[in-house]
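Appendix B. Chain record.
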Amino acid sequence: MEGILDHLKEGLDLLFIGFNPSIRSSETSHHYANPNNRFWRIIHEAGLTPRKYQPIEDRTLLELGYGFTNIVSRPTKAANEITKEEYIQGRQELKQKIITFKPKVVCFVGKGVYQQYSKKRDILWGVQDERVIPETIEFVAPSSSGLVRMKIDDVISIYSKLPSIIEETKNDHR
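Structure tokens predicted for this chain:
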């Protein structure tokens, strides 16, 4: 089963980082394509997009300044199928992508993704004080998976902090 292409360009306002593609995403070649995944609803209701996009439109979010990648490229049914070796390799590749493309903000879609990336255990939602790559704001948000036990309104509330953080980075660069 094939991974899916990253949607990256230099200087993105926001880069979403997931665990890895779902089987459905692999089959369709689009990020967050599983019908049970609430990603597209969350980012719209959090004020990141002007409307609710569909997974087949994922590449068009580059026009909004948003990109997509994963810490591991191999599709699986569940994140617990990812091996330790894949995380080690993925962590190095992800750091290189962030250094190369220089997104202003990276949003880890799930605490577990950030734990694998940063090797930290105690993580709070939102902006991280100690960054792996100091030039990039690291933001941790809940996974958008339908398996997450948080109320959707609580998840959206966390993501809704991102628009003002992005706006602040734009003001800092003026």
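Further analysis of this model is presented in Appendix C.
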